[in-house]
User: Which sequence fits this backbone?
């Protein structure tokens, strides 16, 4: 269990089978145990590589060809929210700096948060629109 998982684990009361835990830790929507991605988020050269099949329940993550193209709508929404927050902070707290500052800060945040946006847009899209039901049978061996 990674440090991030331990932090999330301590934040949630129904850790092992909650959808919140599964999304935060990029787990499979069917078993909520198997990792969707092969490498950790902070592995900047491989953060985008994900398993074709769930290592626990063999669910095919790429449900149909091009399924994850739809994740761009999720990442677009996440970026719009991020830009809104950055605009608000710069405008209100930093008293409306030059236009170039807005561009530089937004570009920097986009670059730094790229792995997070990439991963969570796919995870949220699969959990929300993948049509996969949670199967608690895969949890039996944990109890
Ligand atoms: Zn699974």
Assistant:
């Amino acid at each position: 269990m990674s440090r991030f998982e331990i932090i999330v684990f301590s934040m949630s009361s129904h850790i092992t089978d909650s959808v919140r835990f599964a999304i935060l830790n990029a787990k499979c929507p069917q078993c909520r145990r198997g990792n969707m991605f092969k490498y950790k988020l902070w592995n900047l050269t491989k953060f985008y590589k994900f398993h074709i099949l769930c290592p626990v329940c063999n669910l095919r993550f790429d449900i149909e060809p091009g399924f994850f193209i739809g994740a761009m709508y999720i990442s677009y929404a996440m970026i719009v929210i991020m830009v809104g927050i950055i605009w608000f902070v710069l405008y209100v707290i930093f008293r409306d700096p030059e236009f170039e500052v807005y561009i530089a800060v937004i570009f920097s945040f986009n670059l730094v948060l790229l792995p997070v946006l990439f991963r969570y847009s796919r995870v949220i899209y699969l959990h929300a629109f993948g049509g996969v039901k949670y199967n608690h049978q895969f949890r039996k061996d944990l109890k």
Notes: Helices lie at 3-11, 19-24, 71-93, 99-112, 114-129. Confidence is low (pLDDT under 50) at residues 6-10. The pocket of zinc ion is lined by residues 28, 30-31, 34, 54, 56-57, 59 (CB under 6 Å).
